[in-house]
Amino acid sequence: MKIIYVSSCIFRDTKNEKFIDYAASHVSELFLRGINKAETIDCEVVNIEPITPWPKNKKISVKEEVCNIEGKSVLNIGFINTFLVKQVSLRNSLAKALKNRVCKGDWILIYGLTTPRLIAASKCAKLLGCKVAFIVPDLPNPQYMNPGGGELYKTLKNLDVSIQRKYYKYVDKWILFSEKMSDFFKIDITDCIVIEGMTDDIHEDQEEKGKDKDDFIVAYTGSVAFAYGLKELVDSVHKLDESIKLNIAGTGDAVDYVKKISETDDRIQYVGALPHSEIYEFQRKASVLVNPRGNLEFTKYSFPSKTLEYMLAGIPVLMQHLDGIPKEYDGYLNYYSKEKLGEEILEIYNNYDKYIDKAEKARLFVKEKKNYIYQTNKLITFLKG
What average pLDDT does this structure show over 326-353? Predict the structure, then answer.
């Protein structure tokens, strides 16, 4: 079976460059690594850099070039990176790249559902008789995935989604990160499979270590946004009398609030955005990893990618019981109600041995059942079926 995989990765050095979706790049690259290890798959790779349009990201254009990744030749497609123009430029560049690589019966597997990718793949399906599958980590609708977006943004995105729906009929298979996504797309359950995400082996050689109460660290990595509960997290730790510390990494609209509190409470530290290699080390130094996001309308349509990342670290994970979390995770996660975050942090603080044992079971669970090789083989079996 031949797959043309359209990835969404950053392969170049991006030091000091902002407005890059590092989370998308990481997961997309894990799919690539898994596909490369599948002996029965002939795979070609076309890559789209996951960067925000200029002027937020300073790159006005991305140059087309071929790079070598893990022994495989990857076409990094070029496009003009300005608002709206990017949509057309990206669609045309991707369509050209796909037409030069696809034959009848081949699979086009695309990470991330966007209109340019959907239209380009649909054209190839109509003209060349290939099959199309989309990996969908997030919904395209702004009212679910970007609750803080402005009215113009929401209007344009809703128009964008209405255009997308016209092309869903050309998608043969869907790889979703939440079962409820099938309701949003109005697709047959037999045409989709749920893969919440995947883990790599970054913590493989991690040494187990206990936590001293004098160095008890609560940590968070991700979007530092009010909509995702960062104020509640900061306030909860700030009110605790014990010498519990809070370390936060990421960017978002709540950064200024975090910095303001940290000026009067030296237990709270904000370190800015970190690349994935440094995030793992940041997490390993924690005593408990927290995701303060609460249940909103969109949470049933998503699976927080940091959940698997947190679990793999072998550190107790504290989060609310989000609607998008499958039941199989319930025995490994520590759930709390919004009003009792501080109390639950103290509970783990005072009974740490109990919770670290549970965290080790969580680590073994995701290492065995959610690693990138296992999950990618599950995807490939689904495409072959």
Answer: 94
